[in-house]
Amino acid sequence: MPTAQPIRFQPATSTALLRQLLEQRTPGHSLEAPFYLDPSVFQADMALIFERHWIFVAVAPQVAEPGDYITVDVGHNSILIVRDDDMGIQAFHNVCRHRGSKLCEAHQGSLGNIVCPYHQWTYDLEGRLIHADHMGETFLKEQHQLRRVHLRNVEGLLFICLADEPPADFDEVAARMKPYLAPHRLNEAKVAAQVDIIERGNWKLTMENNRECYHCVGNHPELTISLYEHGFGYQPGPQNEEGLARFEQIVEDSHAKWEAMGLPSARLEELDSRVSGFRTQRLPLDRAGQSQTMDTQVACTKLLADFGDAALGGLSFWTQPNSWHHFMSDHVVSFSVIPISAERTLVRTTWCVHKDAVEGVDYTVENLTKVWNATNDQDRRLVELTQAGVASPAYRPGPYSPFTEGLVEAFCVWYVDRLRAGVASLG
């Protein structure tokens, strides 16, 4: 059988080309170059992935008090997330129902009511129009509420869905994750730091890079201080048999201890087998075993809850298509990936600590953020190198390691399956 020729970057792709790209995808290999380069593929990603699935956008402590708000841009959609007077969290399209002005320009702030800067139409914190001058006696304010966006608060992690009918399986994901996440009390925490970086690369390269640690040795000296080497994934063989067995025993013993403390730890892995793909597992950290810091000790001496032991390893929670999170005894670090263009991606990292922790007494921002600030910058460089490489005419999809890159393949399988379903719905 003749080998399929690689499909090169074409500025004017179509649904037909998307179908061709999807059909030609070789399992166990990276994607064809247009998936990372072509503006029309990017538009399909936004329409069929980011506007149809649950995406992670924020943590609840970002809107801690009534009137606190944040805005998030997802493609052409500006979303306003606000804490209402009853302490509920609401999400709306950040668009006035009068003539379409953006309501809130800042990324975050606090307000009493939502007032359009153009003609001062005013909405309460539940999206009801409460004031609109000069509209006549027959004008009905109740017909002009802000357009709602589906929002779910999963134990302090805020997910939105822009679809009219969001994927229903997310309810099951939230229910299964609750016992894992709830003990860390993220809803009651506070934001200690947030850092945005722009990677000059396609969002899928950002996610693929996150889904493996094949690259960690030699690239992430700060991160690997707290990670067991054999937790990265290894090809089985006599040279590492003893080390792998030792690591597996440490995991087994740690899980038994944590489960006895009421902290679920077993792996749940459904990254490519459901619409709302996810994965979680609590794994031991090396050395002191307390936190992802330079000395592996807690970054915040005031723990998130009354755990009784600071050495709880790290609970990882990954969601498709755009997030990963690490829950430790003393802090939570969350990552949100938002595409900007075919070759630019926003990576937003948020660190949360106990709400009563005092900066300079219980923690310092520098120590709290040092490992992941360094790691994010290193990953940014790797993503940008890969983006430059896939743009070369010499690029061909390469094979994934079955021992260290299985979760990259799971991401690509999920992405291809969901994009294929989206394309099919277009007729």
UniProtKB/TrEMBL annotation:
Q: Which PROSITE patterns match?
A: RIESKE
**Cofactor(s) needed:** Fe cation
Protein name per UniProt: Aromatic ring-hydroxylating dioxygenase subunit alpha
One GO molecular-function annotation for this sequence?
dioxygenase activity
Source organism superkingdom: Bacteria
Pfam families xref list: Rieske, Ring_hydroxyl_A
Which parts of the sequence belong to the Rieske domain? 56-160
Q: Which UniProt keywords apply?
A: 2Fe-2S, Dioxygenase, Iron, Iron-sulfur, Metal-binding, Oxidoreductase
Keyword flag Iron: yes
- Enumerate the SUPFAM superfamilies for this protein: Bet v1-like, ISP domain
Organism name: Pseudaquabacterium rugosum
Query: Which family does the UniProt entry place this protein in?
Result: Belongs to the bacterial ring-hydroxylating dioxygenase alpha subunit family.
UniProt cross-references to CDD domains, sorted A to Z = RHO_alpha_C_GbcA-like (cd08884), Rieske_RO_Alpha_N (cd03469)
Instruction: Answer whether the UniProt record assigns the keyword Oxidoreductase to this protein.
Output: yes
InterPro entries the record matches: Rieske_2Fe-2S, Rieske_2Fe-2S_sf, Ring_hydroxy_dOase_asu_C_dom, Rng_hydr_dOase-A
